Amino acid sequence: MKSTKKVKLKIRKKRALDLILSSFGIFLISPIWLAIIILIRIESPGKALFRQERVGLYEKPFTMYKFRTMIEGAQNSGTGLFSFEGDPRITRIGANLRLWSLDETLQLINVLRGNMSLVGPRPPVIGELEMEHDLPPNYSLRFTVLPGITGLAQVSGRNGLNWGHKITYDLTYIEKFHQSGVLLDLKIILKTVYVVISRKNLIEKENR
Question: Which of 22, 149, 158, 179 is least enclosed, having the fewest CB within 10 Å?
Answer without folding.
Answer: 179
